[in-house]
Amino acid sequence: MKIVVITAYAAVDTAVEAMRRGALDYLPKPFTPAQLSAVTRKVAQIRGLEQKVQGLQETLKQGGFEADLRSSSPEMLRAIDLARQVAAADATVLITGESGTGKGVLARAIHSWSGRADKPFVVIPCPSLSAELLESELFGHVKGAFTGALRDSAGRIAPSEGGTVFLDEIGDLPPSIQPKLLRFVQEREYERVGDTFTRKANVRIIAATNTELERAVAAGKFREDLYYRLNVFQISIPPLRERMEDIVPLAEWMLSTLNRAKPIAGFSDEVKEGLRRYGWPGNIRELRNVVERAIILCRGDRIGMEHLPSNLVPRSSSPELGDRVSLDRIEELHIRRVLAATRSLEEAAEVLGIDSATLWRRRKKYGI
Questions:
Q1: For 25-39, 67-81, 262-276, which range has the lowest pLDDT when averaged over its residues?
Q2: Could you tell me the domains of the chain?
Q3: pLDDT band with cut points at 50, 70 and 90 for residue 323
Q4: Is the peptide bond before 159 cis (omega within 30 degrees of 0)?
């Protein structure tokens, strides 16, 4: 809240005291309408700058790599092109796709490409709260509206004025709150919990879901009228397993972004093939986790198969005793696994039964 002190008893000491206590400005009587207008414009400008800073901070929290939407996949390129086209309009958008495909990233991109880019982008995770808490989180509440409501709350809608509200995983929205959300989507009007005063909001709505809402409607779990209100413009994001051409470039981009301290040149050819072969049920989010894990485990200049989780390593790429492979290959794989499982080179040398100098020569030989 921004405070402007208006007083008929103007003096330097009272002005200083007001500012010290947190007042934004000081307006002595008598004042003209022009002076009052100038003060309110100043308040609005300062609040707008604060909201812009808050939005930038939220963007930074998401991680820079997530903002990268480059792709060679025809389906993904089509989704990005649709997002750019609808960004200029003010239509409600429904983004569909599996968990981890980047629905939130695309929603943020639509906001940044729109005329509302300098206004807040507010994320409301629908599955994370109960129906009672979600309604309060959305619309706010007044003091005493329910047990624990010790003071008024503006909710998430009010601070997003002029910007975009992103309803994440809308398919998990409790049935009891769907009628109120329907009214808000239709009229952009709402009341805070425990209040009768109707408020209006100038916001854009983007929703996302990893479920088939048509089935939820048929099963009676999601209101049909709300579905059609949200599904004005639908964009579907393909899963990562259907974007084979993007997997390695995405992994390399994540490696360059996440790796700040180690001289890692990239992935071995074997790893690249393993990344392409895997099904990626967790999509881009799972890929990021795999890359981050590999960076932590890698002690050489290249990420190898031994740095990947076991579910990504096919049996054929892990030779065992008696397989038709050279002794060098067995030795290299064993050294890599011991290095990945130990905390220091000295510990690894002790486990291998060799001295540190010999281990250094073996690492140089195998490029570990």
A1: 67-81
A2: 4-50 (no CATH), 64-238 (3.40.50.300), 241-366 (1.10.8.60)
A3: confident
A4: no
